[in-house]
Amino acid sequence: LGLLLDPVEGTTFFRLQLWRSSWAMIRDHPLLGVGLDNFLYEYRTHYVLPTAWEEFNLSHPHNLIMDSWLRLGLPGLAVFGWLLVAFFRCGWQAYRDLGETSDQLLALGLMGGMVYTVAHGLIDNAYFLVDLAYVFALMLALVQWTKSTAESTVNGGAMSPTASPVN
C-alpha cells in the first residue's frame, strides 16, 4: 500500500514514466494521433523510457485523455469531450425536471457512474475495451431516456414540438 504513492518505484513510478512517454507520442502526432490499437507498437519501439523497460508491452497510456487523443487524434478527443458535456447536461436537466421519482435517482446514479468512469480513466482504461464502451454507450442512452421522460412529464405527457430525443 505504501508503494501506491511512491514516485520512485512501483505502479506510480511506471504510470509517471508511461505518461511522459505518451506525452512525447502526442507531441510527435498531435493532430491525428497514432491510430486505433497502435499505441503498443509505437510505445515499445520508439517511446518507452529506459527507466521503464520492465513494462514495455503496454497497449494504452492508462489515461482517458491521452488514450483518446492518441487513438482518435485531436478531433476524436474533442468529440469525446463533447459527449461528456452533453451527457452531464442531459443528466442534470433530467435530475432537475423529474422531481422526487425513481427516474430522478436513475439520472443521479448515471451521473455518478460517469464521474467514476472518468475518474478511473485518469489512471487506467475507461473506454477502449468492448465491455467499457458498451457500458459507456448504455449510460449515454439511459441518460437521454431519462431526459426524454422528464420532458414528457414537464409537458403533461406529450413531448413539446421543439424537444427531440437527440437534444
Note down, in words, how this protein is organized.
By secondary structure, the chain is mainly alpha-helical. It is 65% helix and 0% strand. It has 5 helices and no strands. The chain has helices spanning 10-28, 39-47, 64-98, 102-121, 130-154. Helix 3 packs antiparallel against helix 4 and helix 3 runs parallel beside helix 5 (130-154). It is elongated, with a radius of gyration of 20 Å.
- Outline the low-pLDDT stretches: 159-164
Helix content percent band: 55-70%
Mean pLDDT metric? 89
Structural class: mainly alpha
How many helical elements?
5
Radius of gyration: 20 Å
How much β-strand is present in the residues?
A: under 5%
Spatial separation of the terminal alpha carbons: 45 Å
Tally of DSSP β-strands: 0
Q: What is the element string, with H for helices and E for strands? A: HHHHH
> What oligomeric state do the depicted chains represent?
single chain
Shape field: elongated
**Main sheet attributes: strand count, strand direction, barrel closure:** none
